[in-house]
Amino acid sequence: xxxxxxxxxxxxxxxxxxxxxxxxxxxxxxxxxxxxxxxxxxxxxxxxxxxxxxxxxxxxxxxxxxxxxxxxxxxxxxxxxxxxxxxxxxxxxxxxxxxxxxxxxxxxxxxxxxxxxxxxxxxxxxxxxxxxxxxxxxxxxxxxxxxxxxxxxxxxxxxxxxxxxxxxxxxxxxxxxxxxxxxxxxxxxxxxxxxxxxxxxxxxxxxxxxxxxxxxxxxxxxxxxxxxxxxxxxxxxxxxxxxxxxxxxxxxxxxxxxxxxxxxxxxxxxxxxxxxxxxxxxxxxxxxxxxxxxxxxxxxxxxxxxxxxxxxxxxxxxxxxxxxxxxxxxxxxxxxxxxxxxxxxxxxxxxxxxxxxxxxxxxxxxxxxxxxxxxxxxxxxxxxxxxxxxxxxxxxxxxxxxxxxxxxxxxxxxxxxxxxxxxxxxxxxxxxxxxxxxxxxxxxxxxxxxxxxxxxxxxxxxxxxxxxxxxxxxxxxxxxxxxxxxxxxxxxxxxxxxxxxxxxxxxxxxxxxxxxxxxxxxxxxxxxxxxxxxxxxxxxxxxxxxxxxxxxxxxxxxxxxxxxx
Length: 565
Prior knowledge:
The protein has one helix spanning 18-27; strands spanning 43-49, 66-69, 74-81, 91-98, 106-109, 120-131, 139-144, 150-156, 164-167, 171-173, 182-187, 193-205, 221-225, 235-238, 245-252, 262-269, 277-280, 284-285, 291-301, 310-315, 321-327, 335-341, 351-357, 363-377, 395-399, 409-413, 418-425, 435-442, 450-454, 464-476, 485-491, 497-504, 511-518, 528-533, 539-553. It contains one helix and 35 strands.
């Protein structure tokens, strides 16, 4: 229940000085906080967090305040705290001992609530003060938990060393938020300081107002772009002086996958290189090098032949140095594509730009719903294999099973499934007498729980491409179809992180498959391990004549977008 307004009693001996004091208060500039007294009929109490009961801070309580932070800084929350009390016996103390890169990297959240009607208006009030820098500006955000923590509303706060009663601007909710869980998060990690909070209350008001503009994305969603509110930082970048022609409509109704607008690019005359015309997205921040950064988007194209745009990740903080990328094949039907990025520790806290290079193919391209997230961690690498003899000159890796050397092939399997590996099998031979036979008798929980890896090889430089070639086929187990073989490249000198993953759809007939690999500049001199992940489906995989060779020099990475020098 709402507690009655607190009123401050004035000493009797000060009564004759009351009017001068009030006049002085009226002449002082007021901060952005509301008085205690508001008509009770105009609002309904939704949340009341006073820290007087264990339900507000005990981790076992469903209604407790909860904290979250990344690893580059350090935050401590103490509740209940007598030092942080304003009214009653206890409050909550939040101490940021080491600053974080962004405010939202250290936060605490209130219990979730649900809007009951299509249009609601919510006002958050609380007492707060800070000890530390003279002016600290944390952020408060309302987020839709049931819609990927989509931002609903919020604002920045200006705190001081004196207790203030903050009454924030009311936050509206829309019909899409009805019966969704809404989370309120206090984000305060950017400045080392000590914060005191008490008597946090959320009210539902009777008045509706239009929603505020879009804010930065919530944690784990680093970039979201769907063209509904305009380009929002996306831009067409064309190299000056190059022959070719491209047009862009960054609020195109024809390019909408869901919603009203999308991104449309039309290449009427092809350029000499794909990076001479590209769609450049706003940068996102690398918060943790142990996480996998996944770019997902919907796309289609009317180009003929089928185009292969180059999706490139570039380091904005290092003169747009090329990090990694991949080519995707588009068709005339909408498909969702995913391109993963694994970054080294050196790129932590750097801004990364995604460029979609379309200059090499004529036609019309449609893109929508770009999203960069880092919800998943990088999967564990296989154990390093034993070093066998060097391959013949000109070939970085060679395996044909005819002259097998112990340690050339290594296998690793988790205990929930069954896999057997025979490095020299007559049944698996394509050319010669022997080949590599991999049999998965009982599937595993994940494809990477059963893997076969070859000895590492070291690329001589970063200016060439490298081609993995092999012959393979698959036979199912009983009536169940065999699954695809996943080819994975690991960096043996960087904790065996995954550099590239490609699914190869094997058939019952022998076919030769090729997978290309480019080496980023920061990985020069590193050893690379090739692995086959086969744990997801039961069946037999027959592999022969595995080679890694050097191919012709790759083109240099694209130039930085204009205006960034």
